[in-house]
Amino acid sequence: PAFGLFIFTIARDPLRIIILIAGAFFWLVSLLLSSLIWFIAVKASDPQDERLQKGLLIFGVMFSVLLQEAFRFLYYKLLRKAIEGLVALSEDGCSPISIQQMAYVAGVGFGLMSGAFSMINLLADALGPGTVGIHGDSQLYFLTSAFMTMVLIFLHTFWGILFFHGCEHRRWWEITAVVIMHLTVSGLSFCNPLYVGSLVPSYLLMAAAAAWAYLLSGGSVQNLRRFLLCKC
C-alpha cells in the first residue's frame, strides 16, 4: 500500500519526496531513541524476572508511541517554518504546497518507515530456525503480520492529517485522539496470538480515522458517492 501511495501521489513531485524522506527520518530517530532507552532499562534490570521484563516491554511500546507523536509535533513545527520560507521566496506570495498536503506526505513517510521496519522484522523471523505453528501455535503469523503492517501504514497516514489539522487549528483534543488511537493500536498487539483481538479493532479504528481525515481534508459524502459511482 505504501508503495502505491508513493508512486501515484508523491513520486512525481520532488518537494513531496523531500518531505516524505524527512518524515521517515524523524520516525527513525524516534525509534532509535526509544530503543536505546528500552535497551538500557532491560540491561539495568533482572533478566530472570519475567514479570518485570514484560512490564518493561509494555513500557517500551508505550514510550515509543509517545516519542513518535512528539517527533510528529516537532516535524509539524519544522514544516510550518518551511512554509513561511517558501512563501517568502515565492514571487506570488503563495506556498507551492499546502499544509494539508504536507500532513499527508509526512504521514506517508512515517507509515512507510514503520512498515519497512515491520517487514524487516518479519523477514528476519521467516529465516528460521523452526516452522511456524509446529508447537500448535497459529500458522497465520506471517499473514496477520502483513495485514497489521498494512493497517499501520494507513493509520500513520491518517494520523498525520489529523495531527497536523489539530496543530494548525489548535484543537488539542484532535491531537489527544491521535495519541490515544496510537496507544490503543500498539496495545492491541499484546492480544496476540489471538489475532482477531488485535486485527479487527485495528481495522475498525483505521476506518474511523480514514473517515475523519477525509472530512477534515474537505471531502463530503456527495463527492465520495460520485467517486464510487465513477461520475465526473
Description:
The protein is an all-alpha fold and 232 residues long. It has one domain (1-220). Helix content is 78%, strand content 0%. It has eight helices and no strands. It has helices at 2-9, 14-43, 50-89, 99-126, 141-168, 172-188, 195-216, 221-228. Helix 1 (2-9) packs antiparallel against helix 4 and helix 6 runs antiparallel to helix 7 (195-216). It is globular, with a radius of gyration of 20 Å. It is a multi-pass membrane protein. It is found in: Membrane. The chain crosses the membrane at residues 17-41, 56-75, 102-120, 140-163, 175-196, 202-221. Belongs to the APH-1 family.
Condensed summary:
Keywords: Membrane, Notch signaling pathway, Transmembrane, Transmembrane helix. This protein is mainly alpha-helical and 232 residues long. The chain is 78% helix and 0% strand.
Poorly predicted runs of 5 or more residues: none
If you compute it from the alpha carbons, what radius of gyration comes out, rounded to the nearest whole angstrom? 20 Å
**What is the multimeric organization of the chains shown?**
single chain
The proportion of residues in beta strands is under 5%
The helix-strand sequence is: HHHHHHHH
Query: Got a strand count?
Result: 0
Specify the number of helices. 8
Largest beta-sheet characterization: none
Mean pLDDT: 84
Shape: globular
When the domains are counted, the total is: 1
- Content-based structural category: mainly alpha
Helical percent range?
over 70%
- Report, as a whole number of angstroms, the end-to-end distance: 25 Å
